[in-house]
Amino acid sequence: MWRPLAVVCLLLLSGCSGFLATDGGGSDRVVTPAPVPETSTAQPVAMPRSNGSIDLRRVLARHHTALEGRSFHRQVVREGPQNTRDIWVDRDTDVVRVRRTFGPVADDAVVANGTVYRTASDDPDRDYVTRPSDGSVPYVSTLSGVTLLRAFLTDYEYELAGTVTRNGRSLAVLSTDDTDVPITAGDPDQTVAVRSRVYVDRAGIVRYVEHYERDSDGTNLTVRMRVTTGTDRIVVPWWLDDVDLYEG
Fold first, then answer.
1. What is the pTM of this model?
2. Tell me: the pLDDT tens digits for 63-117?
3. Cβ atoms of residues 83 and 102 within 8 Å
C-alpha cells in the first residue's frame, strides 16, 4: 500500500520560520518538523489555465521569473534515498550558498565576489578550495528549482483544489492523485501511484511542494520543497570565517 503524504508543509517548522531553517539561511541546525498553521480561505488565488485545466508549465515559469529578482531560501528534501539541498540567495549582493547532505555527509559551496568557495572535505590541510566563478552554482541546475519541479510534476494533470492560508499568506492548492498509472512493457521501474500537492501564492511563487510516488517495483519516493523569501544576509559558514563575503 502506498503511503499517503500528510498535508504538512514540506519543510515545516512551527510559526513563520519554516521547516528547516529561518529566512536568515545560515544555521546548520537540524530542526524537527512541526505542522504549519493552515486554514481555509474564501479568497481564491488565480492560476493560469489551458483548455480548462491548470497549466502547470506556466505556473512553473511564473515561479522562476518571480524568484529572479528576490532573495530567498529554498530547501528540498528527498526521501528514497534521503538527501537534502538548501539554497540561500542574496540578490542585493549576489551571494549564493548551497548546502547538500546525503545522510551524515555534507557538501557546502558559496559563490560571492566572482569566486566559488567549496568545502575541502577530502583535504585535511585546508578548509576550502576556490576557483573563479563562471556564473554557475554548484549542486543545483537552477536556483529557483524549476528544473527539478518540471522533472517531477509536469507528467501529471493538476486540478485547483482550493485556497488555504499558511502563515498569513493565501495559497492556491494544486493537486493530483493518480493511483492507476498504466504500466508500459519494457520499463520495470515505472511510477504507478502519485499523490502531489503544489502550493502557489499570489505572486506566482511555488511556496510548498509535497510530492509522493510509488514505482512498480515497490520503491517509494517523496520530494518536499519549501521557499521562503526575504533573506537578508547569508550567514557565513564556519569553514569560510576568514573571508568577508560582504566586503565593502
1. 0.78
2. 999 999 999 999 999 987 779 999 999 999 899 999 999 888 889 999 998 999 9
3. yes
- As beta bridge partners, residue 201 has 171
**239: alpha, beta or left? (left if phi > 0; alpha if psi -120 to 50):** alpha
Q: Which of 58, 51, 34 has its CA nearest to residue 172? A: 58
CA atoms within 13 A on the CB side of 51: 3
C-alpha torsion angle, residues 151, 159, 219, 85 (rounded to 10): 50
- H/E element, 225: strand 220-229
130 neighbors 116 (Cβ within 8 angstroms): yes
Determine the Cα–Cα distance for residues 155 and 167; give it in Å rounded to an integer.
30
Extract the C-alpha cell encoding 21: 531553517
Strand partners, 171: 164, 201
**Locus of grid cell 504507478:** 192
60: its cell numbers: 512553473
d(CA 74, CA 76): 7
Residue 176, amino acid = T
Q: What is the pLDDT of residues 160-205, one digit of tens each?
A: 999 999 888 999 999 998 766 555 555 555 667 889 999 999 999 9
User: How far is residue 29's CA from residue 11's CA, in Å, rounded to a whole number?
Assistant: 14
Here the cell at position 12 is 515545516
